[in-house]
Write a structure and sequence with these properties.
Layout: E1 11-18, E2 27-32, E3 35-39, E4 66-68, H1 74-77, H2 80-86, E5 92-95, H3 97-113, H4 125-132, E6 135-137, E7 144-146, E8 149-155, E9 163-169, E10 172-176, E11 200-204, H5 215-231, E12 235-239, H6 245-259, E13 268-271, H7 275-284, H8 291-297, E14 308-311, E15 323-327, H9 335-344, E16 351-354, H10 363-367, E17 373-375, E18 381-383, E19 387-390, H11 399-409, E20 413-417, H12 421-434, E21 443-445, E22 453-456, E23 463-465, E24 483-487, E25 490-494, H13 499-502, E26 510-517, H14 522-532, E27 538-542, E28 548-553, E29 557-562, E30 565-572, H15 575-592, H16 603-616, H17 632-648, E31 653-658, E32 661-668, E33 671-676, E34 681-684, H18 687-699
Parallel strand pairs: 3-4, 4-5, 5-6, 10-11, 11-20, 12-15, 12-16, 13-14, 13-15, 16-19, 20-21, 23-25
Antiparallel strand pairs: 1-2, 1-22, 2-3, 7-8, 8-9, 9-10, 17-18, 24-25, 26-30, 27-28, 28-29, 29-30, 31-32, 32-33, 33-34
Length: 707
Amino acid sequence: MAEVLEGENDELIIKPLGAGQEVGRSCILIQFKGKSILLDCGIHPGLNGVDALPFVDTIDCEKVDLLLVTHFHLDHCGGLPWFLEKTTFRGRCFMTHATKAIYPIILSDYVKVSNIGLDQMLYSEDELEKSMDKIELIDFHEQKEVNGIKFWCYVAGHVLGACMFMIEIAGVRILYTGDYSRLEDRHLCAAEVPSIRPDVLIAESTYGTQIHENREDREHRFTSMVYTIVSRGGRCLIPVFALGRAQELLLILDEFWTKHSELQNIPIFFASSLAKKCMAVYQTFISGMNQNIQKQIAVQNPFLFKHVRSLRSIDFFEDIGPCVVLASPGMLQSGLSRELFEMWCTDVKNGCIIAGYCVEGTLAKHILSEPKEIVGLNGAKLSLRMQVAYVSFSAHADYKQTSEFIRRLKPPNLVFVHGEATEMIRLKAAIMREYEDDPTCMQSFSPRNTEPVSLHFRGEKTTKVIGQMATKKAEQGDVVSGVMIKRNFDYHLMHSNDVSGYTDLSKGNILQTESVFFNGHLTLLNYFFNEVTAGKLEILEEYKDGEGKLLRAFKVITIRVKIPVVQIEVLFIIFDILLFCVKEILSVVFKSCKRHVCRYDCHRCFRSANRTNRIGSFFFKDIPVLSIDGDLKQQYKVFVTDMLIDMFGQGALVEQKCATGSKLQVKADEAIAVVDLDEKTVECNNDDVHRLISSVLKRCTPQNWKK
């Protein structure tokens, strides 16, 4: 099987290294036309150390050209410092302005609160800081190009700065949604629907076929639960991530407290060591929020809350009565939220409201199954008597949003990621049912981790004519020739003089001179030169002594004949073509040498021929050598035979012996010709072949050698 050159393969590979039939450690590998892109590099919230990383050990990190990060959540960027600092990755990494501003805040907190030993830590704060220098910025709708990979991003909703990436390689477009939401909430815009149809859509499937309740009902149920818990004297714990849904919930609670004066003596705490930093970031990136926030900011900053206090540490918390505490992290793995949960879980008056998506293997997911007891961080068993409720404020697309998004884009290929296996398979089946009667039905895939999805795209290659060649309009049938430049996946045809202007290349000339020994007759040499050049040999100069000439062949090959040396000078512009021409000219020189001094008998000829063979990387076959002296009749026969072999091939000639001498039978396609070398006649049933061979006989007569 022929080997496919790198960059010419029509196979597109999509391989989840994480988030394949799971939620967590999002990391999707795309390979096409010799290019490799990673989409996100997260960690699994339910695992620790290297076990939490994507399966990047299955790829060659050094060959990854580009890494695109959609947003700042740990399951999408938590492994980024490790990947940038501890692997052989040398490509480029991009994220939006807001994501880069929040990324170090979130990951610094993760490093501090991780309940694992130093030997299991994936990276230090110093390595996190160093990774910042390797991250580049991209604006929404700004197109960038890296090694021929074009990409730009759209608003994804979900959290501040979250984006969807559109990637284009060799004309094939791939849209990666990351986490997205098509519903506008109190502060974020809904995800955009790109106007460009992608060839492949890689979409999250977090909620599968579930449908979210509408915003008003959800907010009412949430505030009612909070009201009930604090009214009975309980503590209400709301585990959240420091940035994202926390700000949405704070806006809701602050507004609810403003409307209910009876609650205003009950404190609301935003318990995070990052609270002040988070709010500063949100106040900085107001322009990335929806019109509702844009209008409010003209009057008053909505993130300067009236009823919310910051709580940096549990050491500063006085647990003396009912309160509402929003504490991170959102899945109760460790940190403030876990400490408060273990303090309050044994009291029936207290309550815990899970407001976001929970990954399998986390405490937040476990308590939703209503166990009677849980295991604390210190290993002790604790009774679970507090009220546990689930109100989803998770800004992920539900089935309605996913279905509508797919319907508007109509991608021919659909790959689901970021969803538990059951939900993902249900979603895939439901989407396929929607399109089962569609004649242009899409393909859909739900790969597991490290399971590749293989798609084939074969596009037409189009060349754009630029520079001075583009000034003249080509007509139908015109032959257009020039220098073709391939840059990544774009082809441009231009005049050789334009190469340095449109590329980093420069035009240069190589003059090569080859000298060979010659002891033959100038007349015969001149005749052979005319044969090779089809009569287009230019005589530039004739030397006075009559022993030499300065000739030009094929417009670029200079031949200096000065007995006993033939010197050939070539300006190599189109190497392969000129190499063939030089070969023919050197063959003529060797043919014209006297038989007794050929390159096999004369050390000078042999040395010249060997040197030429090395330079040109070709080998001359043993050619019969002619001399102007001796038996002209025999030389004529050899010459004609040699030319007919050149024209029709060795196997086309058969020698026939007869009483009057010898004849040659020549087979040319369907025609057969008989050539009498003594009588110089041709018999053939094909007029064209007859005329061609007759011309050879006439031109090879000794009388013409002196012309």
